[in-house]
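Lab channel / #folding
Pinned by the channel admin:
"Please post every new chain as: sequence first, then the structure tokens as a reply. Keep commentary short and put observations after the output so the thread stays searchable."

First post following the new format, from NK:
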Amino acid sequence: MLIERAEDYRIEYNIERPHEAIDWNRPMEVHLGQADLTIPNFEREENLPTT
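Reply from TO:
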């Protein structure tokens, strides 16, 4: 059971979860050269003045 959970965690950590240190890209995408490290791939909220 521990091996299954460890494998699930490895998949989530390296394939599904974006990482702040690599501009919110996923490690697998960076490793395969599919990510552009100059452009973060997450949506940002715009904070516009209200007046």
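NK: The first helix runs from residue 2 to 16.
TO: also worth noting, The radius of gyration is 16 Å.
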